Amino acid sequence: MRASALAEIGGFPTESVTEDFHLSLRLREFGHETIYLNEPLTAGLSPEGVKEYVTQRSRWCLGLMQIARGSSGPFSRNKLSILQRLGLLQSFLGWTSSNAYRLLAIWAPPLYLLFGVRMMTANVEQLAALFLPAFVWECAMLSWLSAGRSLPILTDVVGWLGASAILKATFFGLVGLRISGLRSPPRVGIERVVSSSGR
Length: 199
What we know:
globular; 7 helices; disordered C terminus; two-stranded antiparallel sheet
């Protein structure tokens, strides 16, 4: 990154905990091009368990909500293109609606058993006709995009476990409150990772 471009946008943005993504947006707002470099320069530690995974996802969600409500958001007056605004909006809806749906799916059976509240009315054939094509398509796409490393049912279970924490991050990010304990895993230089792996 050129120092002149960083100076032009006023330095590193600090309004979001996902400063790397926010920095890319700010550079695009000022007409700079950002590109994907298919070359490892640093390495980060992956989450070691479900708790760490949920913390990471909550941090990403919080960062996007902070961006969405700020000057780089999809509805703000800025120089982002229509496609960039649509991408931000899609991410916003993905974080909010998918996790709200997961919580609703968890609460649907007890609400029906205790209070007779029906979330939907469908017989088995209708449910299969609506659910199975979407589920098969999701499994096929996840398998293809992740080169077989994503397990759809396990992904959903972990998503359900993190839904309430992520919705909390959504709320806190949108109203501008702070959440403690959402730190990134430490990064190390790629030379150190390569040398420690014995290559």
